[in-house]
Specification:
The complex is a heterotrimer. Chain A is 39% helix and 16% strand. Chain A contains 6 helices and 5 strands, in the order ββαβββααααα. The N and C termini of chain A lie far apart (37 Å). Chain C is built from 12 helices and 14 strands.
Chain lengths: 160, 698, 280
């Protein structure tokens, strides 16, 4: 056990956990952030995607030791922002969410993409979301939503 | 923001799902719930001689067949699946018992220490002895055979498929006073209720099933949760503490039900370049128990010649048992197997007859008034020619099919035509389901719709509500569609068989019409709308003759591929689809079903491989079982053409399965053109393509 | 009782390794899968674990003389962004795993786990990469082809840490990378190939063929490559069948849940043939 300090959704935390505890479990079980989902436990589905210092991580494979002193953003915190609103509205308009289980991860990966590249091509959008599996939508509406959100973001002059 | 779907409604559960606030089963807080882990068979077939359970610490319990209260059987149509294996196991992974306790690590350790002594027997993995047989005929096959110019025979095989819903199987069960209460990732709350009532032999009023958010299902949560709920209920009444589990992904892949593998053989009799008769034999692998396999077989047989009218038929179907995980429902439920087989067959046959495949297929395409395969009638207008023309125009099919025929072309384009019967087969809606929709206008003039339809992504919480608000002409925000809860909703039947819109939607429309007639502001009005079969439905279950379904949805898929001769890999370059679903209640939702069905169909057709090795699934992890990623698919274009159905809400039929059943043949016909070889099985993965290209003839 | 060590710097890390036999956890993308028990539970380790991602001093990509040196805690995404990393290596890295895993996983971590299906290894073998190992006893360097000797088998002493990889800068006339997986992204390789050729006035000065996922380690045969040096491009290409026959003896794929040995072998040959035919 070790005292691990980190920031989640702008809130500082200090937890006393084993350094190999999965970030996913700490977020869901200790901090009750249920927006972060577990779809596979082996880093292959993207449902557990969170942002760590602005880049996407699969929280199911991240040992808590690796986020000491870092800033984590989950959907539970992101959903209060204007940036989320733009992405979510685009998803809603294009039909990017069906069963909803992959959606938080998709939205976090979309945000991570925009932080690096606010004007992606279709190919770049597909590459950035290639680690987020969806079994419902065939990605059609999701990719269109991503490009629509990017367009809307540019229109509004948003700083991602 | 631009409105891409101006007539579509915002889905009522959109915001909570996107924001991560939707409560799925694993998100439910239940502090004192015990964790459940299943004890499973480690052999494929044999007798259980002895079960040695380790000493259990206080608060830990072992439950198995000896704890069964009333019946050790799960209600899955044919009731041969035991809740807990009792003395005998029939597949690797079969549930023998369970251990429940407060600490998951301890429970897992205890399960590992359970020692089971078996007397192993030789398992069977071949389709050897039929346990369920169906037969029907049409016209005069003997005459067709006798007078034929020639006959043509081919066999086709389809494989297992894993649902890979993103949310794994999960369940939470507790006692509320005396009442067994369940929340689970499921498609059919009333099936779960029935399973619990049957195994406990209790009063149905003592069981309550409540629906949380469900992360995908596709048929994989239609029957399997019935087994899980019966197991947990047995434990619950003994232990009297809340119980819960969430399957790890590897457990879900290894032990839950899959799509029926199939083998279909056709012999066609051709005279004057027309098919005069078809003999067909469909074989399905039911896994270790029959369960719903009889109904899957029925649907496969009803679709045996797809959307074509063939004058004479001799059709046989069989279900075989093998010592593997039982197969069960999966989007399409038998028809993807035969639609793949027949679409490939008729194209191969056309080429053998040296006819143009398109013209050949057109000659046999069903028209209104035609007698169906099971001697019923296509009562309604069939707009397939319009669907076909539109799809060909969207995809530039005519130019491409000629272009890609050139000898040095590595591209291909394929088109499939298909139908899907919506609703339960024949009289099932009356005799088995007998749906009742409840619509209540409260005194405050809010309207509440109650159905047992589960929204696991298809948007029915929104579309059924929309039918009500549109029919009433009432503001959407004053109409509520509650999530199923068997204490409040009546049984409107399972969320399966593409019946939600065509059957339940129609009931919602009728109920709303009645409410409108009786509307009095300030007064509570309750409408119960029962299912009434359309007068023209006559079906004989025994002989499989008559009108199999109240209505049919129709579709066309066109898929374009590129082939890499170095690696034998295929890439999908374009997908165009047209559908007749009667009328789209919500276009965005139907297009979403199309997109998802296509992705899953491309998986079924070439990307998803699941094999049996030593009685177990060879592909064990989500990395082994490769479903499409965002980089494996192009944009998909879908166009819907209205064809009002008289017994549908606003003319609507069903769409959930239609959008899956035609994809694999469209894909394989495209691959055939690109590789210049015949395909006889799916998945048409690169390893199979290599065999065809390196060993086969042109 | 398993101990978990969180060293604050390299010196501390080396001290810990000199005293305890540890699993070395970098990004976690391998160890957290392999040791995963079940959702909500800690991964089960049967020996001590040391976490090195906090060692910022090992997070670097720099040019040292004629070499590109990449530190142990450098993740794949940073490798993709670096202007000095050769394009061939970037082409390999972009096809590894997924975007989020590339943010977490390290190149050195992939060397440490020495999987026969390790894509990055194929590129590193082609570049004659050297592995730098450091311990309290000092540093040593050895070629990657010597460092990895079997499935998950590396010549690391218990007290050593792989601190960096040293990639000699080279300029090739032609390079090729091909990964064949089950799908276009997030896939474990069925077979991989990296090839390079240096031509000067129509004469082969250097040629390298490297195959991955077809044996217990990456397959590269410098003794075969040596035979083709000095040939003209035409001469080389006329010997294609002979070359493939020679390589075929060392390409020993297996059949598993992802593919068959026949497929892997045939495709390896197809890709190698294609590489040779496009040299100019």
């Amino acid at each position: 056990m070790a005292k691990i300090k980190f920031v989640v959704n702008n809130q500082p935390y200090e937890v006393d956990v084993d350094p190999s505890a999965r970030l996913l479990d700490v977020l869901r079980d200790e901090l009750h952030l249920i927006g972060v989902k577990e779809g596979c436990g082996e880093g292959s589905c993207g449902a557990c995607t969170v942002l760590v210092n602005g880049v996407s991580y699969s929280s199911c494979l991240t040992p808590i030791a690796n986020i000491i002193g870092k800033e984590i953003l989950t959907i539970d915190g992101f959903n209060k922002t204007e940036q989320y609103r733009i992405i979510a509205d685009a998803f809603a308009e294009l039909g990017g969410s069906q069963c909803g289980f992959c959606t938080p991860g998709m939205i976090m990966s979309t945000y991570a993409l925009f932080l690096e590249n606010p004007d992606p091509t279709e190919e770049e959008a597909r590459l950035s979301l290639s680690g987020n599996l969806c079994r419902c939508t065939g990605y059609n509406s999701i990719i269109k939503a991503v490009l629509e959100a990017a367009k809307e973001g540019r229109k509004r002059g948003i700083k991602w | 923001m631009k409105r891409y779907f101006p007539n579509s409604t915002v889905k009522i559960d959109n915001e909570e799902k996107m924001a991560g606030k939707a409560i799925f089963t694993d998100d439910i807080l239940c502090q004192d719930a015990l964790y459940v882990v299943f004890v499973r068979s480690t052999i494929s077939k044999g007798k259980i001689l002895r079960i040695e359970v380790p000493a259990l610490p206080d608060g830990y319990h072992y439950i198995d067949a000896k704890d069964i209260v009333k019946e050790n059987v799960v209600s899955i149509i044919f009731s041969d699946w035991p809740v807990f294996a009792d003395g005998v196991v029939n597949y690797y992974g079969e549930t023998i018992g369970l251990i429940a306790g407060p600490d998951k690590q301890t429970v897992l350790d205890l399960v590992r220490k359970v020692v089971i002594t078996y007397q192993e027997e030789t398992p069977n993995f071949e389709l050897k002895e039929s346990v369920f047989h169906k037969h029907f005929a049409k016209g005069d096959i003997a005459k067709a055979k006798q007078e034929a110019d020639f006959s043509y025979t081919e066999t086709f095989r389809t494989s297992l498929q894993e649902h890979l819903y993103l949310e794994t199987q999960a369940m939470l069960m507790w006692l509320d006073g005396d009442k067994v209460t369940v929340k689970a990732s499921m498609q059919c709350p009333y099936y779960v209720k029935k399973a619990i009532v049957r195994t406990l032999g209790c009063d149905p009023d003592n069981v309550r099933v409540i629906q949380p958010a469900v992360g995908g299902a596709f048929g994989g949560k239609e029957h399997y949760p019935s087994l899980l709920s019966a197991q947990l209920a047995t434990a619950l009444v003994k232990i009297k503490k809340p119980l819960r589990f969430v399957f790890d992904r590897t457990e879900d892949i290894a032990f839950t039900t899959k799509r029926h593998p199939s083998q279909t053989t056709y012999t066609a009799y051709v005279k004057n370049n027309k098919i005069t008769g078809i003999e067909a034999h469909v074989k399905l692998d039911g896994g270790a128990y029959i369960g719903c396999s009889g109904v899957v077989l029925a649907r496969a047989l009803i679709a045996v010649v797809d959307c074509y009218t063939i004058p004479s038929l001799e059709v046989n179907g069989d279900v075989y048992l093998t010592n593997t995980v039982p197969t069960a429902a999966f989007r399409g439920f038998g028809s993807p197997q035969t639609i793949f087989a027949f679409e490939m067959f008729i194209n191969h046959l056309a080429k053998a007859a040296k006819a143009d495949p398109l013209e050949f297929r057109f000659t046999h395409l069903a028209k209104k008034g035609d007698i169906t395969a099971v001697s019923g009638n296509f009562h309604d207008e069939i707009i397939m020619p319009q669907l076909i023309e539109k799809a060909m125009e969207m995809s530039d099919y005519k130019r491409k099919i000629k272009e890609y025929n050139k000898p040095n072309s590595n591209k291909g384009i394929g088109m499939s035509w298909f139908l899907h019967g919506c609703g339960f087969t024949g009289s099932g809606e009356s005799t088995i389901i007998n749906a009742h929709v409840k619509l209540v206008k409260e005194a405050d003039d809010t309207v509440h719709l109650y159905t047992s339809q589960v929204d696991f992504g298809q948007g029915n919480r929104t579309t059924l509500k929309k039918i009500v608000s549109d029919t009433l002409g009432y503001p959407e925000h004053l109409v509520f569609h509650e999530s199923p809860d068997t204490d409040h909703t009546l049984n409107t039947g399972p969320t399966a068989a593409s019946r939600t819109i065509i059957i339940v939607g129609y009931l919602c429309e009728k109920a709303a019409k009645h409410l409108k007639e009786q509307w009095v502001s300030g007064k509570r009005i309750e409408i119960i709308e029962p299912y009434v079969a359309p007068p023209y439905i006559h079906w004989d279950e025994e002989t499989m003759q008559g009108d199999a379904y109240p209505g049919y949805a129709w579709g066309v898929n066109i898929i374009e591929v590129s082939y890499d001769p170095l690696t034998y890999q295929v890439h999908v370059d374009g997908v165009w689809s047209t559908y007749d679903v009667g009328h789209a209640i919500d276009e965005r939702i139907v297009v979403g079903q199309s997109d998802g069905g296509i992705a899953q169909g491309i998986g079924y057709g070439m990307l998803e491989c699941m094999d049996i090795k030593d009685g177990k699934f060879y592909q064990k992890t989500i990395s082994d079982y490769t479903v499409p990623t965002s980089m494996d698919l192009p944009y998909m274009e879908t166009v819907l053409i209205d064809n009002h159905f008289a017994y549908g809400a606003s003319g609507a039929k069903g769409a959930g399965e239609l959008t899956f059943v035609g994809v694999a043949p469209a894909l394989c016909l495209a691959i055939e053109q690109a590789i210049k070889r015949k395909i006889n099985k799916i998945p048409a993965n690169p390893e199979y393509i290599m065999e065809l290209v390196e060993n086969g003839k042109d | 009782m398993v101990n978990k060590y969180l060293p604050k710097n390299l010196k501390e890390a080396l001290q810990t390794l000199s005293e305890h036999d540890c699993y070395i956890m970098a990004g976690g993308t391998d160890l957290m899968v392999v040791k995963h028990r079940s959702s909500g539970l800690l991964p089960t380790f049967d020996k001590d674990v040391i976490y090195i991602m906090g060692l910022e001093e090992l997070n670097f990509i720099k040019k040292v003389g004629e070499n590109i040196v990449i530190g142990a805690t450098t993740n794949y995404s940073d490798i993709l962004k670096s202007p000095i990393v050769p394009q061939l290596l970037k082409d390999i890295v972009i096809e590894i795993a997924s975007p989020s895993l590339r943010n977490m996983a390290t190149l050195v971590g992939n060397i440490g786990n020495a999987s026969p299906a390790g894509d990055a290894l194929v590129g590193l073998y082609l570049y004659d990469t050297l592995i730098e190992l450091t311990s309290v006893r000092g540093k040593r360097v050895m070629p990657i082809s010597e460092f990895i000797y079997g499935v998950r088998r590396i010549r690391r002493e218990k007290d050593e840490l792989i601190t960096s990889v040293i990639i000699p800068q080279q300029h090739f006339t032609n390079t090729k990378w091909k990964k064949v997986g089950s799908r276009k992204a997030e896939t474990i390789s069925k077979i991989t190939f990296a090839g390079s050729c240096t031509i000067d006035q129509g004469i082969i000065k250097d040629i390298r063929l490297v195959f991955g996922s077809v044996g217990i380690t990456v397959v590269r045969r410098p003794e075969l490559e040596a035979r083709y040096i000095g040939l003209t491009v035409e001469q080389l290409q006329s010997k294609t069948d002979e070359i493939l026959l020679e390589y075929g003896k060392f390409i020993l794929p297996i059949s598993d849940q992802r593919s068959t040995k026949d497929y892997r072998f045939k495709v390896a040959m197809n890709i190698a043939r294609d590489f040779l035919s496009h040299i100019e």
